Amino acid sequence: MNKHNPDVLSCLANLSNDEVFTPPEIVNKMLDMLPQELFESSETTFLDPCCKTGVFLREIAKRLLKNQMPGYEKVIESINQKAENDEELSTDDVCFKKELQQTIDHIFHKQLFGIAITEMTSLVSRRSVYCSKSPNYKYSISHFDNAEGNIRFKRINHTWVNGKCKFCGANEEQYSRGDSLETHAYEWIHTENPEGIFNMKFDVIISNPPYQLSDGSGGSTDAAMPIYQKFIEKAFVLQPKYASMIVPSKWMVGGRGLQNFREKMMNNKNIRFIYDYEDSSECFNGLHIDGGVNYFLWDRDYKGVTEYVYKPKNEKEIKTKRYLKTENFNIVIRDSRRQSIIEKATIENNSFTKIVSPRKPFNINTDLFNCPNKYPELNLKEKIYSNSVLIWGVKGLKGGAKRIQGFVKKDAIQKNIQWVNKYKLFISKAYSTDAVEFPKLIEADQNVICTETFLVIGPFDNKYEQQNCLSYTETKFFKTLLFFGRGTMQVSQEVFRFVPLQDFSKPWTDEELYKKYKFTQEEIDFIESMIRPMEKETA
User: Fold this and answer.
1) What pLDDT digit, counting tens, does each position of 452-491 carry?
2) Which of 329, 351, 374, 481 has the lowest tally of Cβ within 10 angstroms?
3) How far apart are CA 171 and CA 160, in angstroms?
């Protein structure tokens, strides 16, 4: 009977969306990007600066051993069989075992290095790499004189400057409580001299870094601060021959505080290869990471176009060779099928962003309905009263919050008061990055406002213009271009960048828009394949 022996590192459950364990299959796809002669050399050095399970170092060790001692598996199998049969080993067998141990010792002592992100992951990593959580123990596959081997973990503190960590940007109030959050002061990015950690330079830096700093909300949200970009930037500073990491794809389109990083990456001609998953669960089995994930290969000595493979959800790979930076776009166009559509739609340089408000359109916080006592000046009531206006917001905790209406004092409105007596549309400020369909728009007539849960589209002088704009937002054309502009859960003015503004003295249909922007049948079919009908809600 054949027995299935699963790789334990394929079976580990992820602790959170912040720190995701990498399946061995993906690790090997990343290693396949590297020149394979690296694994033939006994001089190549590798660093995983954020070890979680040790899977990168383990898989590298396998390749190094296989290349430096070809056919060793069969010889070891023969030797083990002799031992089981109580047969005496030959001189060649004894010499081979000695040579094999010397090769293993050289690989683990001189070629593989790691920095664990927590004390727990340091133990897991040593167990999977050295076959012992303490490599100075007699059963370690390679003996060290210390309990860490080359996989270290050092508990360090943040460096607070004006309430923020100068290295990672963590909030002092949140992270200086002495609880488990303190482990997020990752050594690799909390030093001015990362070369000094091992007192050496590396040929290859490869890893799956932590994705974000916890914001204390108990989940993975856009409000949390991304941190993976700091690991990438640190790797580039060290100038290895090659660097490869697997990270969320949000940086390509948006992400909190990632604008400068995105610009640097788009202009980086050293990025030789990117594999980009629209659906993260196709990479990390069953795990949803909003916006997808990608892994890349950075080559210090390469200057040129990027080989870009985009994997749409449940579709075949789309392969292109191109620069990440394209004219007139400040984001990475992940799916090359989108580019011609965007170029045609934006040719007039007249963006819908002109009639989309910034956040907090009326300067009223999201928590108004949950904590009305915090805002006595607004005098929130359930029923209309003298000199009041209707307000839309949400009530309840994240994940279970529901839209709700109430009434507030009109004289308490301090921002965009000229919009109050106009006609408007409200669009939710946050929804799933992967959703092409957005939540119902709210038709807001005169004397209707909203909390910062929504952005305002408009305002309009009359109901007719409001309705014509609404008909535009219901087109597949509009929804597709809005989807193309989003990379995070958060909706802002900027995500409407590819949606052209129209004349709202008339309603709009997809057929009219396709004709106006001269879309080909192929482009039309692509848009049509993405969209389902949307409902509306009236205030």
Assistant:
1) 999 999 999 999 999 999 999 999 999 999 999 887 788 8
2) 374
3) 9
**H or E stretch covering 84:** helix 72-84
C-alpha distances (whole Å) from 381 to each of 24, 38, 255, 410, 414 are 57, 69, 36, 12, 19
Distance of CA 482 to the CA centre of its chain: 20
Domain total for the chain?
Answer: 2
- The share of the chain scoring above pLDDT 70, in percent, equals 90
pLDDT at 346 over 80: yes
Q: CATH number of the domain that 14 lies in?
A: 3.40.50.150
Q: Is residue 85 in some structural domain?
A: no
- The mean-pLDDT minimum among 61-75, 198-212, 465-479 falls in 61-75
Residue 279's nearest CA partner among 258, 294, 266, 296 is 294
Q: Do 325 and 364 share a domain, yes or no?
A: no
Q: What is the mean pLDDT of residues 415-423?
A: 96
Same domain, 282 and 377: no
pLDDT at 534: 46
* Residue 57 to residues 108, 116, 141, Cα–Cα distance (Å): 9, 12, 14
pLDDT of the residue at 140: 87
Cβ count near 101 (within 10 Å): 13
**Separation of alpha carbons 39 and 69, rounded Å:** 11
The pair of structure tokens assigned to 84 is 């089981």
CB 77 within 8 A of CB 114: no
Residue 151, strand partner residues = 114
Query: Which residues touch 400 (CB under 8 Å, ≥6 apart)?
Result: none
Q: How far apart are CA 50 and CA 183, in angstroms?
A: 12
Same domain, yes or no: 265 and 392: no
Asked if the model's pLDDT at residue 221 lies above 50, the reply is no
Does the residue 76 lie in any domain? no
Residue with tokens 């045609």: 344
State the residue range of the domain holding 392: 352-538
Give the predicted TM-score (pTM) of the model: 0.84
Q: Are residues 512 and 469 in the same domain?
A: yes
Identify whether residues 503 and 370 lie together within a single domain: yes
Query: Is the separation of the CB atoms in 431 and 438 below 8 Å?
Result: yes
- What are the CA-CA distances from residue 410 to residues 379, 380, 445 (Å)? 10, 11, 15
Burial class of 64 by CB neighbour count within 10 A (0 to 12, 13 to 18, 19+): buried
Whether 105 is in a domain gets the answer no
Q: Are residues 361 and 510 in the same domain?
A: yes
Last residue of a domain, one of 285, 303, 334: 334
Is residue 437 situated within a structural domain?
A: yes
Q: Do 245 and 330 belong to one domain?
A: yes
**Cα 4 to Cα 457: distance, rounded to the nearest angstrom:** 57
359 and 270, same domain (yes or no): no
End-of-domain residue from the set 305, 334, 363: 334
Angle at 116 between CA 113 and CA 119, to 5 degrees: 135
